[in-house]
Amino acid sequence: xxxxxxxxxxxxxxxxxxxxxxxxxxxxxxxxxxxxxxxxxxxxxxxxxxxxxxxxxxxxxxxxxxxxxxxxxxxxxxxxxxxxxxxxxxxxxxxxxxxxxxxxxxxxxxxxxxxxxxxxxxxxxxxxxxxxxxxxxxxxxxxxxxxxxxxxxxxxxxxxxxxxxxxxxxxxxxxxxxxxxxxxxxxxxxxxxxxxxxxxxxxxxxxxxxxxxxxxxxxxxxxxxxxxxxxxxxxxxxxxxxxxxxxxxxxxxxxxxxxxxxxxxxxxxxxxxxxxxxxxxxxxxxxxxxxxxxxxxxxxxxxxxxxxxxxxxxxxxxxxxxxxxxxxxxxxxxxxxxxxxxxxxxxxxxxxxxxxxxxxxxxxxxxxxxxxxxxxxxxxxxxxxxxxxxxxxxxxxxxxxxxxxxxx
Length: 408
Prior knowledge:
The protein is globular. It has helices at about 15-25, 50-60, 60-65, 90-95, 105-115, 165-170, 235-240, 250-255, 285-290, 300-315, 325, 330-355, 360-380, 380-385, 390; strands at about 5-10, 30-35, 45-50, 75-80, 85-90, 100-105, 120-125, 130, 140-145, 145-150, 155, 175-190, 195-200, 205-210, 215-225, 260-270, 275-280, 280-285, 315, 330. The protein has a domain at about 5-70 and about 105-175 and about 270-355: 3-Layer(bba) Sandwich (FAD/NAD(P)-binding domain). Strand 1, helix 1 and strand 2 form a beta-alpha-beta unit. It contains 15 helices and 20 strands. Helix 10 (about 300-315) runs antiparallel to helix 12. By secondary structure, the protein is of the alpha/beta class. The strands form 5 sheets. The chain has a 7-stranded mixed sheet with strand order 5-4-13-14-15-12-16. Strands 7-2-1-11-18-17 form a 6-stranded mixed sheet. It has a 3-stranded antiparallel sheet with strand order 8-9-10.
């Protein structure tokens, strides 16, 4: 009977499930350890860009997710008055970037990724602690309560406050507050017809996007001290701050219930890690490179990480000691080399975008808005150019259909 290599994935979010699915396709025996009692995700919706869709192609679900794209024609950036600062066309964007931008409920992607795994591969209510990151001659070890598990590969996909990252790099300062908080809503809004848009105010922004299932995804962000909450409720706070903005913002706020609003302070990893691996343990997603959400790349970079990690995990580095662990040492140095420069650059650009989006000064905001409006009229594709290198990414190996030899 052939020996199978084992991978333990700490964290059952999008990045962890994508990594588990990619490794499973490559023949690894995978267990996902999720500390929460279920895989119910935190958050309302997310965007999958063309680069993320290509990563999902490797897992065999890219076209299924593409079918969820809600084509709405024109969209773009607006001022609170409703004035368009910049317009974009969904079909033109798809032609430029090689695919659509898909907005979908976070639960949809989580459920679809989980369905790619064999029965019993996901253990919920299983908080994990890294005991030993492993080395070429010994497996990594993870403790789950009183139980200790060994694996040829451990994947830390446990989010922005990653305990695995802290164990690997205890001297690193970890994540820090960005200076702003976010609100998210996912609600039905029957009969609503509007162009997908993001609106920039002074020190705050709002986005409203129709989904294919008929619901509306809306979000807001604003500069704020950490840990603050509204004295009454978050929906009332949003109505006070955004209720006089252009339609459909007031209609969305009127249709929402207090329990529909999620609020989260945003943290990011300001100082890049020295590597995304140590021994037989690798980090991915927010555990490796948490970034502000302004470019919409958090989930996309996590699924990119997942398929690149699986690719390099399949290229074993010869060991020097006898036994299964030595014979199956994944090439995690190659994973770091492939992912750290790209994600560091995208994280830096996300920080720059947040500074622009949430500029607060009256004169600064007026200059920002007028410059955007004039530049967009002169060069309609100007704002899209900065996204070219992000969306152009392609996986290191083709789609799942061309790699059936890895299916088990």
